């Protein structure tokens, strides 16, 4: 996946994270370390998967294949317990704040569960004749009876509370001079989450929803009727923050085969194929809320795979339902920035029929090292008022899967007190007032302006913002050194009207470029709040490289100024545009517009024709007025609204786009034509093997046009990896009037490299890419057959530089590594076809800033 979504909500905490934070990473707290080995008292063999728990806490671990264990904690626990089915439980007293070795010998005992008698026996793990496998297979067999899909209709209420806190707060940190203006925030320190650790709550969000489900036809609906959160609207996209939190903390359904967690795909411990990838052990029996259960421990067979580790509590009756799950991720997998993660789910029997989710708690500790400060995030969800098999009207399921009520944020404090499933703690209540107070401190506003400049490329001055700063200076061979200065108004100026523009100057072509635009919001919201309905008018005179389409970057960004190969062709476009955009709640949108472009070639690009007498006719410019319609459908899409772009959060739903344009001499165009393009993008999750992004495109032009109006295929001559461009194709190298393309980008998430001992510590992630482009130019648009059409560009020796894709596709593929130093992706790309074309690169490295979990 691309730029990390984590950075957006991380801004909420930035007022406490300064350069002095790095000095705090070395701070330590009084830590207790217990390690040792557990063996069979009779045989002396090590016992794997023994449960090792600090009494009266949730801190614990299990022994490895060699019976070894290690616990590091700052808790002040007095005793440690060792238990495993078929052995007597042993306990020992520990010394707080010291490192100690405690070796344990467990004595055998037989244990009966129903008709199965468990006797300990030292042997290598096997699924055969394993009572734990017999049990988990019964759970898998009964899955359909114990999940909501087993009912025609289901309705329930959902309350969720998500909060974030700075963790491992130390006195040294609180005494930093950088925080002298914010001393009052430390009054809200929370020590109840883990004894011995201080947490500073800084963010909270609550939501109350009505949820609906049906099986025929399959449909889900969540109506969010109330939401309450801290508000940084002047700095951040609140909708985007919520979307990022929901993306990071997605609902976890243990009964699904694959579970999306921490933006990755994990195999459920009760998936159909779970016995192939997990080890299972019966530990003991226990009673939870009066229900007798069998406690089952599970762990990955290969510690490098994206799998969970923990305990399942299975009801000791014929339903074989999950009463409780307590699990986390094993530390051998390739996930960055996550020190620890825990998932606890409790189920209850509804109407003595089936087991439904009652409570769901997901806790994640983010940070760089175990001892460093970090961010603790917790999402707690409560479910109530289940209604089973009571028919639900079809009208409920119409529209988007998530529906937000108009008065979402207008609920009174009394409403929340009456409807919360769980009361807020004193510290949680204090978050709202503390953040409101912080926002009034002038130093905080200055600090946030600096942070916003660094992360968004814009500098804000209340009613206007200046940027993008990265485009203030750039260089290209045609314009030379280029200076640009611009900006736009903010919602403080007007929520309805947004003005934008810039002025640029090239010191080699000695030409000013400029742009001015106005956008009017046709809703009470700003144009940065979904769904948008707006009208935009703009006028622009600027240069453009034919075929360059950058992802999440401006063409004149300083970091992209230097390019490989020859970059001496440019277009000077004078553009007038009027555009109407209408977005719908179901994430369908359409754009209708009119654009007028007067286009002139620049640099070593020339428009000319050659008649039958070999006379050359130079054309200074062409007129390209168009009427266009763009359709886009992205069901259930979530995104963060940035200053210039929307950062889409990946999911399993497709994105479909259709673009149609029409040009005619009747509206001032020099040519008659119509153009259509269709594109489909979708992400797939092939279980534990990572994820695959596939994009399929196609297009066709009807009518006779010169090559500037053909499809000029996306090329990339920068050293930045561009996902949707051809990274070894030259600008204006290929044109078509009909084409089809396939783009495959697969990330293995370290599936192979994590199994190599020396490389495993680097947490690298392997990638493979494949791009193929088929196309052609019809006789009607072939300048060799049509003397009134512009000739393709050539070099000074008359060697062609632009081609049609006749007979074979353009193909490039690559291998890459991401997560280099946790922030970079590097691809080695190879070009396989058209390798004899001039000035091309057959092989090249490309780099991308890519900050993932």
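Sequence proposed for the structure above (853 residues):
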């Amino acid at each position: 996946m691309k730029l990390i979504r984590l950075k957006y909500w991380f801004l909420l905490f930035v007022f406490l994270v300064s350069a002095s934070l790095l000095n705090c990473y070395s701070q330590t707290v009084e830590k207790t370390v217990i390690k040792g080995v557990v063996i069979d008292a009779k045989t002396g063999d090590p016992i794997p998967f023994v449960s090792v728990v600090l009494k009266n806490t949730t801190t614990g671990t299990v022994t490895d294949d060699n019976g070894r264990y290690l616990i590091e904690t700052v808790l002040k626990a007095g005793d440690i317990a060792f238990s495993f089915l078929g052995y007597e439980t042993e306990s020992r007293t520990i010394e707080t704040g010291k490192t100690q070795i405690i070796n344990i010998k467990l004595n055998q005992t037989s244990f009966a569960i129903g008709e199965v008698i468990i006797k300990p026996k030292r042997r290598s793990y096997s699924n055969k004749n394993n009572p734990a496998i017999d049990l988990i297979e019964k759970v898998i067999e009964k899955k359909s009876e114990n999940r909501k899909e087993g009912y025609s209709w289901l309705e329930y209420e959902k309350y969720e509370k998500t909060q974030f806190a700075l963790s491992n707060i130390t006195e040294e940190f609180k005494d930093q001079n950088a925080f002298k203006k914010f001393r009052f925030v430390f009054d809200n320190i929370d020590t109840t989450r883990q004894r011995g650790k201080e947490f500073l709550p800084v963010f909270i969000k609550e939501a109350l929803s009505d949820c609906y489900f049906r099986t025929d036809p399959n449909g889900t609906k969540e109506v969010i009727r109330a939401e309450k959160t801290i508000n940084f609207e002047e700095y951040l996209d609140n909708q985007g923050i919520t979307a990022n939190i929901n993306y990071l903390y997605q609902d976890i359904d243990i009964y699904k085969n694959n579970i999306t967690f921490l933006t990755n795909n994990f195999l459920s411990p009760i998936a159909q194929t779970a016995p192939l990838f997990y080890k299972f052990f019966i530990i003991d029996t226990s009673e939870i809320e009066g229900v007798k259960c069998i406690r089952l421990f599970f762990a990955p067979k290969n510690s490098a795979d994206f799998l969970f580790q923990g305990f399942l509590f299975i009801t000791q009756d014929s339903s074989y339902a999950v009463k409780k799950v307590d699990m986390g991720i094993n530390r051998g997998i390739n996930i960055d920035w996550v020190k620890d993660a825990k998932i606890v789910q409790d189920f209850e029997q509804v109407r003595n029929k089936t087991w439904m989710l009652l409570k769901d708690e997901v806790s994640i500790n983010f940070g760089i090292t175990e001892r460093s400060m970090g961010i603790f995030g917790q999402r707690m969800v409560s479910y109530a008022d289940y209604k089973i098999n009571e028919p639900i009207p079809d009208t409920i399921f119409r529209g988007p899967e998530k529906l937000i009520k108009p008065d979402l944020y207008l609920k009174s404090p009394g409403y929340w007190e009456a409807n919360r499933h769980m009361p807020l703690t004193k510290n949680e209540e204090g978050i709202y007032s503390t953040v409101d107070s912080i926002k009034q401190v002038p130093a905080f506003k200055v600090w946030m302006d600096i942070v916003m400049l660094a992360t968004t490329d814009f500098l804000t001055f209340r009613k206007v913002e200046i940027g993008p700063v990265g485009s203030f200076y750039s260089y290209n061979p045609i314009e030379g050194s280029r200076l640009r200065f611009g900006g736009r108004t903010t919602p403080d100026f007007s929520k309805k009207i947004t003005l934008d523009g810039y002025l640029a100057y090239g010191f080699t072509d000695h030409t000013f470029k400029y742009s001015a635009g106005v956008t009017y919001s046709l809703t009470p919201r700003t144009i940065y709040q979904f769904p948008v309905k707006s009208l935009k008018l703009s006028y622009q005179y600027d240069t453009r490289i034919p075929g360059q389409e950058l992802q999440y970057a401006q063409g004149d960004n300083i970091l992209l100024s230097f390019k490989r190969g020859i970059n001496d062709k440019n277009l000077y476009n004078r553009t007038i545009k009027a555009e109407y955009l209408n977005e719908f709640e179901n994430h369908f949108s359409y754009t209708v517009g009119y654009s007028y472009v007067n286009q002139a070639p620049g640099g070593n690009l020339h428009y000319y024709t050659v008649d039958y007498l070999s006379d050359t006719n130079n054309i200074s410019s062409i007129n390209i007025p168009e009427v266009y319609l763009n359709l886009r459908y992205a069901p259930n899409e979530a995104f963060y609204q940035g200053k210039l772009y929307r950062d889409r959060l990946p999911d399993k739903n497709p994105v479909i786009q259709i673009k149609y344009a029409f040009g005619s001499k009747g509206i001032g165009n020099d040519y008659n034509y119509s153009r259509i393009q269709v594109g489909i993008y979708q992400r797939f999750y092939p279980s534990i093997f990572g994820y695959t992004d596939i994009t399929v495109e196609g297009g066709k032009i009807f009518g006779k046009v010169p090559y500037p109006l053909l499809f000029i295929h996306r090329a990339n001559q920068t050293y930045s990896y561009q996902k949707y461009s051809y990274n070894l194709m030259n600008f204006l190298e290929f044109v078509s009037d009909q084409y089809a393309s396939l783009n495959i980008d697969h990330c293995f998430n370290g599936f192979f490299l994590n199994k190599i001992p020396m490389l495993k510590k680097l947490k690298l992630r392997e990638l493979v890419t494949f791009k193929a482009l088929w196309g052609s130019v019809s006789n009607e648009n072939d300048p060799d057959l049509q003397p009134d059409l512009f000739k393709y560009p050539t070099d000074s020796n008359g060697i062609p530089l632009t081609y049609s894709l006749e007979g074979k596709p353009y193909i490039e593929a690559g291998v890459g590594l991401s997560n280099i130093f946790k922030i970079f992706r590097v691809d080695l790309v190879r070009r396989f076809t058209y390798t004899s074309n001039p000035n091309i690169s057959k092989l090249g490295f490309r780099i991308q800033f890519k900050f993932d979990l």
